[in-house]
């Protein structure tokens, strides 16, 4: 009997106790298993088949040349852990899904930067902070995200302050909101890496959001079998 691919999930020290069960549930629905990682917990990529970098505090601006904002909530120990894991995952070919802060950290780890004041930059954007799907996102054509979830406009949630600014190495935009703010990033080639600005774990009742976790599990199976990850994801889509 084939065992489920195991996905490591990084979480906040403050909110991980309530977020991890949601992510675990989504991975279970997709046919995968999960283990919780975080500051003070063991974290060895050689023991897992995939990685989710979860949501939470803002990414420290010193990691990408920004300046400290007094209103920012930072966890530098978590920054160090997740930046290292994202970099190591790319080097080792471990598939990654970044969620909100996780998408931002993935971008920073790949050499990109963040907009610390995204709501001010996109001044006409309605500032939405809710786990309910109240934000419209346009999936770009000919992207991995479009192949995974479909090309139609999505309605998602939003809990972020920062947003992706300049893209990291090898990344491209997968989706923008209706004001132009980047809402998803992706690697078009192996290893599989997709980051979304929203929180799909809260939207498990929406099939298109569950497909993100299904794609990661497919990539994790391919990684375990030393097969092409993106090809496996698209074949499974």
Any idea what the shape is?
A: globular
In percent, how much strand structure appears in the residues?
A: 15-25%
Number of strands: 11
Largest sheet: 9 strands, mixed
In terms of quaternary structure, the protein is: single chain
Low-confidence stretches: none
In terms of structural class, how would the helical and strand content be classed? Answer: alpha/beta
Mean pLDDT reading? 91
Q: What radius of gyration results from the CA coordinates?
A: 16 Å
Q: Number of helical runs? A: 7
Helices and strands, in N-to-C order?
EHEEHEHEHEHEEEEEHH
Main β-sheet, spatial strand arrangement? 2-1-3-4-11-10-9-6-7
Report the end-to-end length measured between terminal Cα atoms: 23 Å
Helix content: 25-40%
SSE layout:
Elements: E1 6-10, H1 16-29, E2 33-37, E3 50-53, H2 76-92, E4 96-99, H3 101-109, E5 114-115, H4 118-121, E6 130-139, H5 144-149, E7 154-158, E8 163-164, E9 172-177, E10 182-186, E11 193-196, H6 207-224, H7 229-236
Helix pairs in contact: 2-3, 6-7
Features:
two-stranded antiparallel ribbon; nine-stranded mixed β-sheet; 22% strand; 237 residues; alpha/beta
Question: In summary, what is this structure?
Answer:
With 237 residues, the chain is an alpha/beta fold. The protein has helices spanning 16-29, 76-92, 101-109, 118-121, 144-149, 207-224, 229-236; strands at 6-10, 33-37, 50-53, 96-99, 114-115, 130-139, 154-158, 163-164, 172-177, 182-186, 193-196.
């Amino acid at each position: 009997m084939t065992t489920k691919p195991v996905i490591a999930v990084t979480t906040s020290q403050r909110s991980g106790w309530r977020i991890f069960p949601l992510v675990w549930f989504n991975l279970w629905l997709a046919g995968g298993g999960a283990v919780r990682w975080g500051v003070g917990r063991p974290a060895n990529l050689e023991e897992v088949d995939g990685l989710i970098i979860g949501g939470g505090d803002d990414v420290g601006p010193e990691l990408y040349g920004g300046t400290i904002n007094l209103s920012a909530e930072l966890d530098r120990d978590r920054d160090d852990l997740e930046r290292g894991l994202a970099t190591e995952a790319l080097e080792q070919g471990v598939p990654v899904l970044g969620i909100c802060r996780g998408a931002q950290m993935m971008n920073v780890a790949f050499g990109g930067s963040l907009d610390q004041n995204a709501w001010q930059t996109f001044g006409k954007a309605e500032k939405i902070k809710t786990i309910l799907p109240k934000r419209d996102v346009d999936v770009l054509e000919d992207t991995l995200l479009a192949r995974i979830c479909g090309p139609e406009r999505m309605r998602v949630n939003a809990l972020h302050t920062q947003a992706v600014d300049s893209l990291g190495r090898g990344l491209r935009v997968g989706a923008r909101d209706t004001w132009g703010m980047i809402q998803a990033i992706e690697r078009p080639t192996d290893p599989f890496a997709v980051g979304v600005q929203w929180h799909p774990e809260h939207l498990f009742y929406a099939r298109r959001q569950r497909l993100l976790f299904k794609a990661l599990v497919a990539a994790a199976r391919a990684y375990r079998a030393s097969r092409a990850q993106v090809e496996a994801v698209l074949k499974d889509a």
